[in-house]
Amino acid sequence: MAPDPICLLCGRPIPGTAKQSLHHLIPKLKGGKGGPTVLLHQICHNEIHATLTEAELARTYNTVEALKTHPRLAKFINWVRKRPADFHSKTPGQRRKR
């Protein structure tokens, strides 16, 4: 049996029971359709889109390394790493404007 994939944002394993999704490093609306994607926990993906606009993602935060440097995301990563691998909760706030 293959090991669980690892969430590239938080570094925790993504078990089959966890909510997960693919994140386009360059948003589809900004030319990223068919571009590189990374597998993330759904909660990690939600936090990215609650924190950054599509324009910010395309312009400045289009790598996992860059995402990890954003202050709010860095704080979130530090918090979520202490949770179980299949932890999920609603992300406060709304998705940022496109």
Mean pLDDT: 92
Instruction: Output the helix-strand order.
Output: EEHHHH
Strand line-up in the sheet with most strands: 1-2
Q: Quickly count the helices.
A: 4
Secondary structure tally: strands: 2
Task: Report the major sheet.
Answer: 2 strands, antiparallel
> Which segments are poorly predicted (pLDDT under 50) over 5 or more consecutive residues?
none
Classify the helix fraction into a percent range: 25-40%
* Large-scale geometry: globular
Beginning-to-end CA distance, first to last residue: 40 Å
Query: Rg from C-alpha positions?
Result: 13 Å
**Structural class, please?**
alpha+beta
The percent range for strand residues is 5-15%
Helices and strands in order:
Blueprint: E1 20-24, E2 37-41, H1 42-51, H2 54-59, H3 64-69, H4 71-80
Antiparallel strand pairs: 1-2
Domain HNH: 7-50
Pfam family, one: HNH
GO molecular function: endonuclease activity
Describe the structure.
The structure is a single chain. The protein contains 4 helices and 2 strands. Strands 1-2 form a two-stranded antiparallel ribbon. The longest helix has 10 residues. It has a domain of 42 residues. GO terms for molecular function: endonuclease activity.
Entry summary:
The protein has about 100 residues and is an alpha+beta fold. The protein contains four helices and two strands; from the N terminus they run E-E-H-H-H-H. A two-stranded antiparallel sheet has the order 1-2.
Descriptive labels:
98 residues, alpha+beta, 4 helices, 2 strands, globular, nuclease, hydrolase, HNH endonuclease
